[in-house]
Amino acid sequence: MRARLEDFAAGIFAGLRDWQRADAGPRLRAFADAYGLTEQQRRDLVPLLTVRTRAMHDFLRDQAALAVEPWATHWRTGHGDAWRSDAEYTERHTDRWLTALLN
User: Fold this and answer.
1) What is the domain partition of the chain in residue ranges?
2) Given this model, what pLDDT does residue 69 score?
3) In this predicted structure, which of 1-5, 21-25, 99-103 has the lowest mean pLDDT?
4) Rounded CA gap, 85 and 96, in Å?
């Protein structure tokens, strides 16, 4: 089931590209409800939000260091900064995500 949650954490960015908006918590809850996540799965999901976001930052950084396109261009144009900012934000607000998912 962990693989499913990791896929969910990665895929949620299709509908939640901007974590730093007021309705991010309710929107996250809507996704979890739609997928029928259990309470334990919701608890397990919260740290994965940061893990997956940070993984995208690291992927961009590593590919840019190898000059692999289009990742190098994305890195140069600030996408790495955006992913890092989102990872830091999701990590700082874990209580917000947990509250949104469980209440």
Assistant:
1) 2-14+24-102
2) 98
3) 1-5
4) 17
Please, which residues have CB within 8 angstroms of residue 59's CB and are 6 or more apart in sequence?
A: 71
Q: Which residue has the tokens 């809507």?
A: 30
What whole-number distance in Å separates Cα of residue 15 and Cα of residue 37? Answer: 17
- What would the pLDDT profile of 24-59 be if each residue is shown by its tens digit? 889 889 989 988 999 999 999 999 988 988 999 999
With b meaning 16 or more CB within 10 Å and e meaning fewer, what string describes 59-91? ebeebbeeeeeebeebbeeebbebbbebbebbb
Q: How far apart are CA 80 and CA 6, in angstroms?
A: 20
Cα–Cα dist 61/72, whole Å: 8
